[in-house]
């Protein structure tokens, strides 16, 4: 497929951003993006990409949207990088609008074995599309990420089977355009230095350690709160005991006074009445 200088410049920018956004060594990158235009409506679309971490053993694909949590990167800042990458995709489509006879609705970019590949798709992605966005995602993952069928759910298997018996698979064979260029990937600056984060396993281990530490802090805080409550309840209990002792002492004192008067004035009426209140003893005039 013939490619203009404008497109090549955009491809270089896309590569640069992808290299920067992946915080560990990798073997392959796969990106999907779509742009849907309908009359009198604002264009909409979606984008997602995965990378395969580098390693001797087969590694599982990592979703771009997992990177902030796995590598302790500010999510808002990282999402800005994702938006800039999508703007490059939109710019690429605008260039195609100017120089191509037809306009693609989606593309898949793959980088592996020092080869940069772009596949343009032209199928209808609007309301009349044969598959929903979710179903297209499942199909795309199956085709590009080589997902083991044994790991797929029953629903996912049904979607793949529908795809193989659909009109879409025949349409793709005769309509999709492909651009390929060989490349030499130089050492690029990454969002996280490789010296700091070497593998996904290290990132996951660090995340688990952070979660354990957070759990320990919460338990410690809860224990401190319980101890404080218990101490307060004990203090209230002690204060109540002290008040009871004071009250008992006053009652005994007044009792002694009463008994003394009874002995002294055994044949006389009281001059005063003694009243016991709920808190202390008082003398009424």
Précis, in short:
By secondary structure, the protein is an alpha+beta fold. It has two domains: 5-122 and 176-197, BH3703-like domains (Murine Class I Major Histocompatibility Complex, H2-DB, Chain A, domain 1), CATH 3.30.500; 217-284. It is built from seven helices and eight strands; from the N terminus they run H-E-E-E-H-H-E-E-H-H-H-E-H-E-E.
Can you describe what's shown?
This protein is of the alpha+beta class. It has 2 domains: 5-122 and 176-197, BH3703-like domains (Murine Class I Major Histocompatibility Complex, H2-DB, Chain A, domain 1, 2-Layer Sandwich); 217-284. It has helices at residues 5-21, 67-70, 75-99, 133-145, 154-164, 167-175, 200-264; strands at 26-36, 44-53, 62-63, 106-112, 115-121, 177-182, 273-276, 281-284. The strands form 2 sheets. It has a 6-stranded antiparallel sheet, with helices on both faces. A two-stranded antiparallel ribbon has the order 7-8. A hairpin with a 7-residue loop joins strand 1 and strand 2. Helix 1 (5-21) packs antiparallel against helix 3 and helix 4 packs across helix 5. The longest helix has 65 residues, at 200-264. The chain is elongated.
- Helical coverage, percent range: 40-55%
Question: What is the CATH architecture term of the largest domain?
Answer: 2-Layer Sandwich
In CATH, the topology of the largest domain is named Murine Class I Major Histocompatibility Complex, H2-DB, Chain A, domain 1
* Structural class computed from helices and strand pairing: alpha+beta
Task: Quote the distance from N terminus to C terminus.
Answer: 114 Å
């Amino acid at each position: 497929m013939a490619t203009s200088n404008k497109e090549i410049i955009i491809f270089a920018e896309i590569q640069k951003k992808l290299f920067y956004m992946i915080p560990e060594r990798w073997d392959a990158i796969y990106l999907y993006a779509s742009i849907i235009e309908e009359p009198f409506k604002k264009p909409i679309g979606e984008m997602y990409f995965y990378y395969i971490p580098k390693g001797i053993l087969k590694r599982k694909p990592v979703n771009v949207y997992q990177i902030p949590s796995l590598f302790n990167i500010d999510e808002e800042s990282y999402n800005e990088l994702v938006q800039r990458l999508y703007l490059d995709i939109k710019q690429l489509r605008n260039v195609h609008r100017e120089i191509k006879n037809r306009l693609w609705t989606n593309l898949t970019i793959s980088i592996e074995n020092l080869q940069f590949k772009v596949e343009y798709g032209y199928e209808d992605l609007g309301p009349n599309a044969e598959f929903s966005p979710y179903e297209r995602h499942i199909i795309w993952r199956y085709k590009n990420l080589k997902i083991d069928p044994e790991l797929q759910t029953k629903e996912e298997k049904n979607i793949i089977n529908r795809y193989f018996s659909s009109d879409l698979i025949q349409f793709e064979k005769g309509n999709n355009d492909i651009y390929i260029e060989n490349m030499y990937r130089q050492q690029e600056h990454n969002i996280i230095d490789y010296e700091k984060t070497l593998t996904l396993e290290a990132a996951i281990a660090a995340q688990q350690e952070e979660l354990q530490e957070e759990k320990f802090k919460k338990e410690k805080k809860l224990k401190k709160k319980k101890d404080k409550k218990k101490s307060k309840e004990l203090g209230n209990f002690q204060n109540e005991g002290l008040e009871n002792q004071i009250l008992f002492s006053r009652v005994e004192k007044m009792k002694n006074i009463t008994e003394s008067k009874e002995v002294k004035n055994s044949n006389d009426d009281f001059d005063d009445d003694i009243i016991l209140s709920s808190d202390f003893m008082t003398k009424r005039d």
